[in-house]
Fold this protein.
Amino acid sequence: MKRSTLSARHLLAPLLAALVLAGCATAPAEYAAPVEVPAKFKEASAVWAVVAPAESQDRGTWWKVFADPALDALVERAGAANTSIQEAASRLAQARAALGRTQADRLPQVGLGSGAVRQAGANTANGAAPATLTTAGATLSWELDLFGRLARANDAATLDAQSRAALLQSTRLLVQSEVAQTYLSLRAIDVERALVRETVTAYEGTLRVTQRRHQAGDIAELDVARVESELAATQSEALALDRRRAELEHALAVLVGDAASTFALTPGDWTTALPAIPAGIPATVLARRPDVSAAQSGMLAAQARLGVARAAWFPNVSLTAAGGYASPELGDLFKWTARAWSVGALLSLPIFDGGKRQAGIDDARAQLEGASASYRGQVLTAFREVEDQLSSLRLLQEQAQAQARAVTSASRATVLSESRYRNGMDSQLELLDARRSELRNRRQALQVRAGQYQATVALIRALGGGWGTPS
């Protein structure tokens, strides 16, 4: 009796030692240095404030600030059928499934089983003669998370799911902004095409007049050649705009999930409103940037996985239990006398693994450093993008005012040149120069206006989907 008691104590000694270690040893965590952010935007009078991430907040229908029903319909179609959004949603579902697996690892595992074994040997009921042993019962196992390995793995999976959710938001915002920018570019092309074709019509009229005057002997053939050259060059520009519009229309088809062969957007007037940017945009809106939140979650997940790698140095302790019936006769299997049960505790502690665990820690630490650098880079990129668009809008507004003055002056110069040409005071070359200058200035004014729309959409995207303060 005394010998059996000593033997039991000897067998339980490793388990007791592991339980004692659990109270005084944990896998230490390693934290990344916080990202330093500027106090305010250089291009605005907004002050930075520390706020909780708000990437999960609904951005609302931010594209409706442009008051364009056609744009509204296209963005809604893209939200339902864009393949990039569908891929991001699939990755989020995978991350949530992985989270479910890690959560299941922390719960007791219960199973049912039955079997039949034909065996022979000294330990069988019939001695050395073959015998059949049938079993039926239930098993239960539960790993004691004494050192936080499963908890950290669950934390990492949770953060991965949060990162994927943020990336889904980022993809949706990216697609919405690309739809808006492509649509606005296409509408700008429509206006520019109309302007160039109007110029083509004017040159065609000038050519007819010039040819009649040449036939009458009033002007030389050189004047006819000059008008023909201007007409051909302007027609070439019109065809180039047609090609560019076709490319934009095809790109828009892909964004809304349609085939380019069946998608068409009828040319129309550019009635899209240009929203006014409120003064003093608060820097807190960057808390809604889903890509920044995704990078942050990725960094925290890498930090949790470093803890998982360090927990590999500590023993694994599992509790097991089994109960059921075992009998050499199938008819006696479920008799009370055939009952069998077992309870145990399993402890495993690798002693030598050739540096495998240390390599795992080194790999996890390197991933944490990379994720930290990626997070910092994402924050810096967010500020750069906001500053870029704020400065673009400010300078484009000044450029639009200057270009408007240039268009007014060029239009007046064309009117005066036509009058002087009819009265024989200006040459045809001077009239063509005046018309060319007016066309160039009108197109530049149109491009500045298109740039204002593009910068506005880019600013909304850079701010995470609008400029309202997160609640």
About this structure: The two ends are 71 Å apart (CA to CA). The longest strand covers residues 131-144. Residues 34-106+145-315+359-462 form a domain with the Outer membrane efflux proteins (OEP) fold (CATH 1.20.1600.10).
